[in-house]
Structure formats: C-alpha cells, structure tokens
Amino acid sequence: MSTMKNRLFPLIAIATIIMSCGSDDDINTNGVIENEAYAMFIQTDAEANTGLLVPFSELPAGEIDVSAITNGIQINAIRTPGIGYGGAVYNSNNSAGNSGIQKFSLSDDNTFFDDGFIPTGAQYASGNMFGLISKTKGYYSNSDVSQTAMQIFNPETMQRTGEIDCSTEINAIKDELEDVVSTSFGGFVIERDGKVFTEVYFTNESGFQVIDKTYVAVFDTATDTLDKIIVWDDYILLGYGLKNTNYINFDEDNNLYLNGFIGNFTDPEGPNFRSLRINNNETDFDTTWDINAQRDFSNGENFALGGAIINNKMYVKMFENTIGNDFSGVAALDYYAYEIDLDTKQPTKINDIPVGYWVSVYGPSLFDDKPYFVVENDDEGKAYFYSYDTDSNTSEKEITIIGGSPTQIIKL
Amino acid sequence: MYKNYFFLIGLLFFMTKLIGQSSISGHILDVNGKNLLGVNLLLKGTELGTISDYNGNFEIKKVPNGNYNLIVSSIGYKKQIIAITIHNKPVIIKILMYEEKEALKEVLLTGKTHQQKKREAPIKIDVISVDKILERATPVTTIINQTSGVKVRQSAGVGSPTIVNINGLQGGAIRFFKNGIPTDYLGRAFQIGLIPSNLISDIEIYKGVLPIQLGADALGGAINIVTKKTDHNFLNTSYSIGAFNTHEASINANYLIPKTKIQAGLSSYYIYSNNNYNFEGPVLNEETQNYSYETVERFHDGIETAFVQGNFGVHDTKYADILNIEMSYFNFNKEIQTGNNITVAIGEATFKETNKIGSITYQKKITSNFKIDLFSAFSKKNTIQKDLSNNKYNWLGAITSTDNFTGGETGDTKTDSNINQESFVARLLASYKINKSLELKLSSTYNSKNQVGTDPYQSTNFTTGIQPITIPSYYKKTVSGISAYSKLFEGKITNEFTFKHFHLNTESANIFGDVLTTEKHNSSFGWGNSTKYKINSDAFLRISFENTTRIPESEEYFGDNLFNLSNANLNPEKSKNLNIGYYSNLNTSKTLFLDINTFYRDTNNFIRKLPVGFVFTQNQNTDTQITKGIESSLKLKLQNNFRANISITYQDMRRVNTGGSAIENSRTPNTPYFFTNLNVFKNYKHPFRLPVFIDLYANYNYTEQYLLTATSKILEPALFERDISFTDLIIPEQHQVDIGFTVKLKKLPISINTEISNLINSKLYDEFRIQKPSRAFRLKVTYKL
Predict the structure, then answer these.
(1) Quick one: A124 and A75 in the same domain?
(2) What pLDDT sits at residue A125?
(3) Contact A361/B713, CB-based, under 8 Å?
(4) Mean pLDDT lowest among B98-112, B520-534, B549-563, B590-604
(5) Are residues A136 and A108 located together in one domain of the fold?
(6) How far apart are CA B183 and CA A61, in angstroms?
(7) Does residue A312 fall inside a structural domain?
(8) What does the DSSP assignment read for B17-28?
(9) pLDDT-above-70 percentage for chain B
(10) How many CB atoms lie within 10 A of CB B85?
C-alpha cells in the first residue's frame, strides 16, 4: 500500500436531480414524499458515517435535493444499507449505529419508524449477515451467540425463534485445518427455492481465513437443518460481509452468482475479482464456470464490484488500471462502469457513463431491467445514478442527488 | 534619711510628670463630612500615637509639654503634619483629610491580587480561585463547568475521559497547561477529570486568544492549572469519601527551612472508586435477542490512581530567585466498562499508565526590569492496554457466552499493547520592561515525544508483514512568540500584541518502500492583538483577535500504516478568533457586576478522518466551522456574605464549505450550544454563637438538548423544540442540582464539607448518550494551615 501522496479525494461527490415531470405529486410542497415503494440510503456526513433513509413513492428519478427532504430518518453507520422486504426495510444497524437487523416500517405520515431490532454483534469484515426467507422466517448469524449455529428469527415480531446447530459439520472441517481460532457464518446470506446459502469462515488469531478455500453452507428452510457445506478451491470473501452489496445476484434463469473482489487482505495476489455460480435447482458450485479477473481479463483490470445480471451480462464498477496488493490507485478518478460477458468472460467499458471515484463499495442493482450505476466525481456536491439500456447499449443519467452520497436504492 | 530623700525625689519626679503633660484629642473627617476611622496619628520623634475610632475621634494621652509635629496619615488621603504645642493644657483639634487620588490608584493596583490582574488583563481570562474552595468535595470538572462559555463533559464517573468545549471549540482545539507548560509530559496525572482541587491554586481559562507564555498551538482556547507557589509555607491535607465507594486523599505542603533559603515540598493524591452507579441499561433477552431497559449497575468501571511529587529547591539567592527541582511518580489503573456504545458491556478489558517525571524550574530577576523563567521536564511513560477476554458480558454482569473470539471486547481484534513514550519539554520565558508603559516578552516552548511499543495482536501491514507499533516514531514541536504589552493614556488603554511561530518536525514508520521511516516538517505563523479600554473606574471594554493554528498530530499525517492512510499534504487547522467583551459594576455599592463576552470563530481546514472506499480512511482537510456566540455572567456580592452568580451561554456553531453537502450550515454535532448555570453562596460567621464558620452553597446547571449527528437544517429542531422523531440521536436536556455546606472550626484549622451532587437524581448524559452518575453524596475533611 503506497502513501498515496498525490491523490485527491473529494469530500462528498454529489449530483442534482429534478423530480420527473410525470410525478409532480410525489413530493408535496412540504418536501414530504408520499406513496412510498422504494427507499434510498444517502450519506450526508462522510466523517461520522451518518445520513438519511428516505422513502420514495416510485423509483426515484430526476433531481433530489437532500437538504429539502423532511421525511428521511436520520441513521448512524449509513454506509451499510439493508434490504427491502414485504414493505419494510431491514437494515444492518439501528439508528444509533449498533450492528444488527433493524426493521424500519412506514408510518401513516410517510416516515420510517423503528419496528424491532435484533443485535448481530461483529461479523467478519465488520459486516453482519441476515437473510429473509418469508414474512415470518429469516436466518442470521451472530458469533457472540454461537460460532457454529445459524440463528433463526421472525421478521414480523423481530424476535429470535431458534437456531440450527452445525457444530458437528463445522468442527469436522476445523479439525482438518491448522491455526483455527474461531468460526463464523457471514459474507452473504441468500435464499433460493427453499435453500439458504451462506459462507462459513475458519479464521486465525488475526481474523484471516486459514486456508485458501471457500466454504458455503447450504440450509434447508423447510426443516431448518444444514444440508451440507460445499467447498471451492480458492478463498474469496463472497459478498464482502455487507448486506446489499449486490455481489450476490440471480440471472433470468435463476442461476445464483456469488462474487467477491478479495480473499484475505494479506493475500499476495491482492484484489482479484472472482465470480462463482450455483446453477438453478442445484446446490453445488458449477465447476465448469467461474470468472477470475487476473486470469480472464485481458487488459489487467482486477478490482471490480458487482453486479447485476441481465441478458447474460454482468454489470460491475471497476478500476481501469490494475490495482496492486498494496491497493495503490484506489482513490484515483479511475472507476468506470463495465459490462462483463458471462460467456467470453471479457469486460467492456461502458463509455457514456462518466468515470468516478471509488466512494461506495456497492455494486450496480437492477431496476426496470436496467443496471443502475452510482457515479461520484469532481462535480462538487453531486452524485449520479446512471442506467444502462442493454438493448440499445445506451446510458442515461437517471438521478442527480444534491448534497449527499447515495449507497443503495431498494424496493420495499 | 536617704529613704525619705528618694521618696521625695520620686514624688517630685512623679508630680513633674503629672503636672508637665497633657493630651491631644480631636476629630477627623473628610471633605464630605464623613468621620474617618483608622487614621494614624503619631507625634514625630516619639512613640506616642493612636488611631482614630469609628466616630473619627482620637486621643493621645500623657504628652509631655513641648513642641511637636503631629503626623496624620491614612491610605488614600494626603499626609498632613500639624505643629502642636503642649503646655499643661489639653489640645483639642479638628482635622480635615483630603483624598490623594493618584496614591489611591497606585494602592489599588498594587493591592490587587494576582487573580484580579489576570481577570482585568486585555486577554479574556476567567480565573477560578480554587484555593478558596478547596475544602469542598466538588470535582474539578464541576468547578470548571460553572464558568460561562465553557462546557465540560465526562463520559462516566471518576477518571473517565473528559471533553472541554470553550466558546464552541473542543477536543484537540483546546490545550491544557500546568503553570504555563503543556501537560503532554504529565500524561493523565493532571487531567481535569482526575486531579483533586487540593493540588490547585487557580484555574485559568483562556478563551480564543492565548498569550505567548502558553506555548502551544491551540485553536479555541486553553485551561491552565496553576499550583501554589513555593515561596511560602503551607499545608493542606484532606480525605473524602463518597458514593460508589469513592475515596480520595491528598496532601499539598511546602516548607521554607528557617534561617536558610531552602524549601521542600510534597504534593500527593490517591483516588479509588468503584464507579458502580446505577443507570438505565439495555439487557438482552437471550432467547428472543431483544433488548429491554432495566436499572443496572456498572460493574467494571473501577479506578485506582496515585500521584506523588516531591520538590526541593532554593529561593531568593544571588543566582536564583527560585530554583526548584521536582520528581514525580504517577500510577493509573482503570477498568474499561464501555466504549462509545452502551449496548455492549465490557467485563475484563483494562488500561494502565505509569509515568516518572523529573523537572526543574529556574526564575531570576536579572535587573529591575528584566527577568527570565526557565522550565524543563523529562518523563518516561508506559501504557498497557489489555483486551484478551473470550467472554461476552451483559449489563447484569453475567457472562453470556464464552468462545475463542478473534475480536476483543473493545474492538475487532484483541489487544495486549505495551507502549513506551519518552517526553521532553523546555520553555524559556523572558520579559523586559522598557518603561512603565511598555513591556516585551519572549517565549519559546519545545516539546518532543518518542514512542515505540509492542502488541502481539496488532495487525501486520499486509505488504511488509511489519507491525507499525514496533517502529519508533517521534514528534517534535516548537512554539515561539513575542509580545508587546503597552499602557496608553495613563493606563486608560492597555494593549497586548502577540506574534507566534509554530514549527513541527515529525517522523513515523513508513513500512512501504525502501526507507523505514518518513519525515514531515511544517512551519506556520500566527498573530493576535488584545485591547482593553477603561471606560471609568467601574467599567471596561475588551476586544481581542487572534489568527492561530493547530498543527496536525503525527498519526494525522502518517496514518497507522494499516487501514488509515497517510496524507503528507495535510494542512494545519486555522482559526480566526474574535472576542468583544464588556465588564461593569452596576451599582455604586459595587455589589452587582455584569460580564458579557461575544465571540466569533472562523475555523477552517478542519481535519477529519474520512473513508476511502470502504476499506480505508484518511485524514483530510475538510470544512469550516463558523461560531457566533454570547456568554454573560451576572454576579451579586452582598455585605452579608451572600453571593450569587448566573451565567448564560449561547453558541451557534455551523459547518460551512462542506462541498455542497446537505449538511451545509448545519449545527456542529455532538456539541452543546445553549447552557446556563446558577450558583448561590452564603457564609455564616459564628451562627448561634458557635465558634464555627458555615458556608452554604448550591448550583443549578441546565444544558439544552443537542444533536449527536450532523443533521440538515430542515430537520434541525428549534431551540426548546421537543417533538422530534430521531430521539436516539439526541442528547436530551440536562438539569443538574448540587448542594453542599462546609463547617470550618474557628479554633482549629479543620473543615468538614458535605456535598450532594445530582440532588434531584435526574438522568444526565454526555457525549454518546452514556448516562452519568446518579445522585451522589460526598464527605470531605480538610486540615489546612
């Protein structure tokens, strides 16, 4: 890692959006947004990591002046946003910034309110992991409660209801490894067709994975039992341990893609974007397909975050230049939108989306069948969401945010 | 026969004496007809004299016949010499005294205490005479908190970290001094959250403008702890016991060895507390994993600390007015109960500090108008932090889980750090009086710190595999200044101009590239001017301005060689500070005083730690804070020993130049902006004819709610508004009432004080919404000579 003496880094790169003419009644004259179906997490204080969770009546568009928003809820640790499910937001921390599953529901006056909290303790890569299976069941991990049991909770009541003991299987693997001090679940938690997938870590005293392998646990949600633990022969921090990074995605055929840009931070290879696949109706890794940037990308790009999948293309944000194992170059204005062909495994830069700084760790999401990219650069006080039409191969500036740094848009 | 002779001679002698003398009596008054008490009368060349009584009458008896000059004198009046002849008859005279205005002024000035001179200096200084209230068990933080414009917050009980806000600026913008020397070399020994009041003579609070004698880079102000001078004998020793098993003992003594010019002294304190107060804490239900709030007790917040200082020296010798050597030892042991998050109860992590300090002071008046003051100190400090537990605790003190956790209780990794730091400080202060109206001062303070340590759990740099803590680093700072103090128009205007230079030389680990360490040099300038205009004998106006600097700390430049990146382009923080104040007696009897100070601060290049992506952080120069405020005090001092003081402070601190952020012009978070204090005191002498003095006092402190996070203006609650949705991110309003009384024995130098803090048991919070101690009782016994 270099001393980065000459890099400039913007305080907050912010965009301005004017709400679209087709939705004049979405923001009333008091600045309150009605008929919400979406939410956006917007950071306003980069140092303190605080900001607003803002409801929207439909997919945001146009210009949004954050300083004029009156029904946003103030939240600490805003840079770890959650997900939407069943009309509520399930966030990775409460308003005070404590890690956990925080349910925010919408009140009659179109503001979010605290509707229940379960702490999750510290997780690997400082994240905390949970996944929602149904309106009354979800899984989450909390190493402070158990290093070998997946916890179960009820999203309606926001109470823990039980746990799935995996100690036999985990200890069996642990016994084959050396220097394991602790184990944990995390990285990501995703549900597909009655199965939940989550990564399992075997870490040493310093908190690093002890072996160059990736372990993924497969749970059956009908019986709340562990089916098995599958193994990939290369260690990747899938999902990065933060909720809603959009490193975990489905394609139109319900194949599951698990992505990550790093293994251990101590790995000599440094950043290396990789993608693994679990095909539809299967519960094992597809050993015939994977992406390894250092192996596959012909121009040396290796640091990608994402991403949304449509029409056999994966959409990521990526540095144009090779990022070394000391992470030199990460703060430069060098962060572009890319489309990766899942057959050829080659990235193509999307040229009409401007370059930006690496401000957010979150990858592009799909809305209305278009990937949305966040761009923040030297336009002071502004951040942008650009969409990419995969049919016409054109981009459009959809949202300009004035006065804040957005992390994610979610559909409730 | 000869007996009769001698009797006759004696009788004649006696008769002569009786017949050949008379008296001088009379009445003394001023030109307004007021009887003058206490006027001195003396017959020149004799020992015959007297003092006028309450009615202005006097009498000198048994004055032998003769011619005399009667000398009549009194402070503030012109001396008179009256020729008188005594010849067997009483002389009765009436004497009219005329005021000596110049003489009165000089006496008043020279008669002012050191504290009064400071309070009336051109630079705004609030002086708290702690020496006068050292019998009280009141903590030093509470004493300082009663000053207008100043807010002291403490995150928990005895020994917990404090943060001081002076006129809107806090944290690193405020510097601390002991006798004008930056306290870095002392470690925690003289922290205001710890030091007992018995070791302190005065506390000086500088607001916005610092004189050059305080050689540090302070953006917003400073607190200078002044200890008793070693040029006289004194002894005070005390013991106090209080709630939460709090014990405090102290001794402060100095002795001038008779018939020598040697003095020796001892200052020491010992403090122990469990800090086990109750508060509303979150208790987790292990089944449902939901929190409920219950009254719980802090169970791992104990402190034990001791400080011993011996001093030895000489005074008033040919070569030194004062030459004093001090040797000190400090030991501090603290259990850690919480971090910034009250949901996590820490059960085993601890912190320890030891410090050995040696210092020397030399003062000498070289000529009648030139004096120098030298100070130098060296200290060796060791800190040990242990966070190794594999247990998780809840607020009931119970272990909820035990496992091989990678992380510690206080952070993501365990800690077993052992850090050694050597500090050296040297200050030269020289002053030269050119004439009665002009004095020049020169000051230079050099401060250095070398640090190295070990921690087997600290992450290694993932490129080189080296632990940054094991690489020695140093930090050297020099602050120099020159000032010109002048009196103009017969003292109607006093002015002090200061010019300062700040220089930094720092080196820290560079564990990338070919060189092991990397250096940084920085040089900055600052200047200031303070003017006091005396409107009349009752009122004055004061204006001061300073353009000052805070040099970044070593880690702000170099990062931590792990995830906090370096930034060699970091600029010092800068502030333009303006104070305009007015002070006046409000009545002729001089029992009511008003002190108003308005202040403006334009502080820019604020250094904040900002995220880079999601992996790294980097210290960068960011926005500007504009502070506008007003603080006022109204003091009442009646003849019957009743005093009252009310102070109100409003400070509007806004963040600007935020790069277009929605928090542009928002209030600076986590900083109180409106607070008031009411203090009353009454002294009784010999109540019910008992041989005691009784002091009764009470204090009420109000702090308006304030925001924990930066909030856009549109969401910002108005002053006193309570209908707010995001209550988790607000520090609620605080009401604190403290009362106490002190009984001083007349015949013995002993006093007994009882004090109750937080009398109404209100919930008090400070930064991070961590609840402070509930109602607490203290009893203190002091022996003072």
Answers:
(1) no
(2) 57
(3) no
(4) B98-112
(5) no
(6) 56
(7) yes
(8) HHHTEEEEEEEE
(9) 93
(10) 10
Read off the tokens for A84: 């939407």
The third-level CATH classification (topology) of the domain covering B234-780 is: Maltoporin; Chain A (2.40.170)
What is the spatial distance between Cα A354 and Cα A360, in angstroms, rounded to a whole number?
A: 15
Indicate whether A411 and A305 sit together in one domain. no
How many other CB atoms are found less than 10 A from the CB of residue B784? Answer: 17
The answer to whether B728 contacts A94, with C-beta atoms less than 8 Å apart, is yes
Longest dimension (CA), chain A: 64
Closest by CA to A103, choosing from A47, A24, A159, is A159
Pairwise CA distance, residues A182 & A117, whole Å: 26
For the stretch B639-655, pLDDT in tens is 888 999 999 999 999 99
Domain assignment present for A343: yes
The DSSP letter of residue B286 is T
CB pairs under 8 A between A and B: 210
Write out residues in chain A with pLDDT < 70, as ranges: 1-36, 122-128
Beta-bridge partners for B674: B650
pLDDT reported for residue A22: 36
pTM for this structure? 0.83
The whole-number pLDDT of residue B411 equals 81
> Is B288 within 8 Å of A45 when comparing Cβ atoms?
no
* Domain spans, chain B: 2-103, 108-226, 234-780
CATH architecture of B2-103: Sandwich (2.60)
Which of A16, A63, A144 to mutate: most B Cβ within 10 Å?
A144
The verdict on domain B108-226 having CATH code 2.60.40.230 is no
pLDDT by residue (tens digit) across B391-438?
999 999 999 999 888 888 988 789 999 999 999 999 999 999 999 899
Respond yes or no on whether ipTM tops 0.90.
no
Number of folded domains that form chain A: 3
Q: What is the dihedral of CA A120, A124, A127, A130, to 10 degrees?
A: -50
If asked whether residues A102 and A167 sit together in one domain, one would say no
Contact B250, B235 (CB under 8 A): no
Domain span including residue A315: 245-361
- Which of left, alpha, beta for A77 (phi over 0: left; psi -120 to 50: alpha)? left
Rounded Cα distance, B525 and B296, in Å? 52
Q: Average of pLDDT values for B232-241?
A: 93
Contact residues, chain A, for B414 at CB < 8 Å: 205
| B583: pLDDT strictly greater than 90 | yes
A119 → closest Cβ in B289, B713, B715: B289
